[in-house]
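On to my pick:
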Amino acid sequence: MSETVPIKEHPPYSHMTAEIYDLLYANKNYAAEAAKITKIIEDHCESGGNEILEVACGTGTYLGYLEDEFTVEGFDLSPEQVAAAKQRLPEINIFQADMLNFNTGKQYDTVLCLFSSIGYLKSKENLDIALAKMANHTKPGGLVLIEPWLRVEDLIPGYISLESGSGDGIWVSRMGTHTNDGKISTLNMHHMVGRNDTVDHFVEVHELALYTDEEITDAFVKAGLEVYIDPEGLNRRLFIGKKPTT
């Protein structure tokens, strides 16, 4: 007997709860990546402090690994992700905001935007605006670290991604396909979520900018930051911007 499972389509991060998100990325080595971020800050930051702001912090996993060494804050556009981050890290200031117009009223020693979150801005104009905001929130001598989405040349034709995880009575599997028009990468992420003898199948459509290195570098320069590209980065290339001390 075959069963037809209805497919529901949703915007990104609107139906994928924090619980599902964390199960899908349970094998991501956040600890090692946080250790590398710490080393970069130790080697390059000259602002004299230890305050970090994470832009698009998601469920707060990076912040959890960084809080022992730094004073950390974070924000995300998704209220569901913010709620999960607050539950995980109740002592940390985590709030809802948009990277295009946030204003905390202070500056930090390091501003982070990781795991391709910058790609959701989709346009070069928005990239410039967001980098300017991040630079304005950075102390002289401080750093802005950006981990972008892939470039056109990094995409593998026909590639299908697969992640899965389980815990506390929930099983999750996700397969994703992508298309691109040279500027925007469109991901159709098919989620299968099993719990309480039922299976829910929904699709989230994610659109991310395929920024070139030149476009991102230009945004850093326009924001008044000196920029270096670490080709290995955390999982993919990492842009390290430094705000001049004078």
